[in-house]
Inverse folding.
């Protein structure tokens, strides 16, 4: 692709860089102790899917934006960016969280798993395979979040009935309305992983 | 989201020192604060990360269950002692938010989450809670979600926390630390009525840190339950909710404590409803009397009058459960 024909992703990346330059950091509180300790940009290291990534980030960068825009792992999706849709679900130390609702700087030293970290080479994770077999998606935008939530849901043991699966998958919305097949996928994955 | 400075605090005393500056704010789970900052409802120059403070344990001691302020909703909900001795607390926590948010949100942050009133959450609208004196569009606007009791002519927003309703019924105490030292605030005095200062929501002072919550373990608390009525089955705030602690001897109500969510600007304890039950048999007539006492001073608005019968029916449902379990 030529420079006159940038990909959508490069446009987004350039836009983010410009925004970062244009916004001045706030003046620090004039408390002596705070001055010594406070940073508005931080050199942080995030461990994602077993790989350590060192980044210099503003404190306001969410874990979601760090994953997508800095580290380049765009499997994790930004839907609402308000914790309502679940498309940004990742595992932190094995627990599912919404990566749009936490700051990257707060997640240092933890093991972060994204959808890119589920498969082992060409071998899909049983939850991924179950979603394909059960047609658990249509457009696919919510699917990475659904998968991460489903992996946690199975490990938590919240798959005793379809009602229980629905309750414990309720933090992930699907605008295509694939819920019956998502429930079937989780049910099957739970059976295979037990 | 505007840029801000960030400090991770490793000791409560240091967090409190940093938060003496009014431009600073604590962040724990971040599940509400970051939304408020993204939407421009709140701006803070300095966030003090308290998520690593050693305040996340849950233990039983001296007739109380002591909950660390930074313990997560999901961990507290499944804690054995909580489930066995304080079922209403476990149920209220599991009725809130989504599994992902419950893995993130701290108990202290849950108590301090801001109202979901859509006028408050929209910085282009006036709101006395957000900008004192700017007005309250909910009074004559879209007020289906709003308070039927305890509101004022300045604010009728409802408090969204299920946890706070359960803790109010359980007569819990909030433990805090500030520059003046530690203190304890009973739940009954933790949230302030809106009056003409709805922007003052809690008894906390600038920089005061919630360090924990103490809940008394009683026979009454062991028989407690939570009912949440929502517009959809799950992952939604309460339209109305009830936390009920009832102790029966035979048919007679010996003790009762009732707190309600979704109907008031703060968790709503109704001693009037309790008094209509205590010392009387639990039957259709006394349950109806308790419901009537609960809404005696209700002041519904154009779109929320349905909450008046709804909360009475919710109370009737939950009290009926105690009758059946006898």
């Amino acid at each position: 692709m030529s420079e006159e024909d940038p990909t959508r992703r490069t446009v987004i990346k350039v836009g983010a860089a410009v925004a970062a330059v244009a916004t001045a950091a706030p003046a620090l509180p004039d408390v002596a102790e705070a001055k010594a300790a406070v940073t508005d940009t931080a050199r942080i290291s995030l461990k994602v899917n077993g790989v350590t990534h060192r980044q210099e980030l503003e404190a306001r960068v969410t874990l979601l934006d760090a994953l997508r825009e800095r580290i380049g792992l765009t499997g994790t999706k930004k839907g609402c960016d308000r914790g309502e849709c679940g498309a940004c679900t990742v595992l932190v130390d094995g627990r599912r969280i919404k990566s749009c609702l936490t700051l990257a700087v707060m997640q240092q030293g933890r093991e972060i798993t994204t959808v890119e970290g589920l498969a082992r080479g060409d071998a899909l994770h049983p939850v991924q395979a179950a979603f394909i077999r059960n047609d658990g998606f249509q457009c696919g935008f919510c699917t990475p979040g659904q998968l991460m939530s489903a992996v946690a849901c199975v490990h938590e043991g919240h798959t005793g009935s379809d009602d229980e699966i629905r309750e414990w998958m309720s933090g992930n919305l699907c605008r295509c309305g694939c819920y019956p097949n998502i429930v079937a996928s989780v049910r099957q994955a739970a059976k295979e992983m037990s | 989201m505007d840029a801000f400075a960030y400090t991770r605090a490793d000791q409560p005393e240091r967090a409190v020192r940093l938060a003496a500056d009014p431009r600073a704010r604590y962040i724990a789970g971040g599940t509400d604060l970051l939304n408020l900052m993204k939407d421009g409802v709140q701006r803070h120059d300095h966030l003090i990360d308290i998520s690593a403070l050693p305040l996340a344990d849950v233990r039983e001691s001296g007739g109380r269950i002591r909950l660390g302020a930074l313990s997560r909703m999901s961990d507290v909900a499944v804690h054995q002692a909580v489930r066995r001795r304080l079922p209403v607390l476990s149920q209220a926590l599991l009725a809130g938010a989504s599994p992902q948010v419950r893995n993130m949100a701290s108990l202290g942050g849950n108590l301090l989450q801001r109202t979901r009133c859509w006028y408050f959450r929209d910085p282009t609208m006036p709101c006395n809670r957000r900008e004192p004196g700017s007005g309250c569009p909910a009074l004559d606007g879209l007020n289906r979600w709003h308070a039927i009791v305890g509101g004022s002519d300045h604010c009728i927003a409802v408090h969204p926390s299920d946890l706070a309703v359960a803790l109010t019924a359980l007569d819990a105490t909030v433990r805090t630390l500030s520059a003046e030292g530690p203190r304890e605030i009973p739940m009954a005095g933790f949230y302030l009525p809106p009056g003409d200062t709805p922007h003052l929501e809690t008894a906390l002072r600038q920089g005061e840190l919630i360090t924990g919550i103490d809940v008394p373990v009683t026979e009454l608390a062991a028989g407690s339950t939570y009912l949440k009525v929502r517009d959809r089955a799950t992952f939604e705030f309460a339209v109305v909710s009830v936390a009920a602690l009832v102790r029966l001897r035979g048919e007679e109500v010996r003790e009762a404590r009732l707190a309600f969510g979704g109907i008031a600007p703060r968790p709503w304890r109704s001693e009037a409803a309790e008094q209509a039950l205590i010392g009387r048999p639990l039957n259709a007539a006394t349950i109806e009397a308790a419901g009537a006492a609960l809404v005696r001073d209700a002041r519904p608005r154009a779109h929320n009058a349905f909450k008046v019968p709804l909360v009475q029916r919710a109370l009737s449902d939950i009290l009926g459960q105690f009758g059946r379990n006898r």
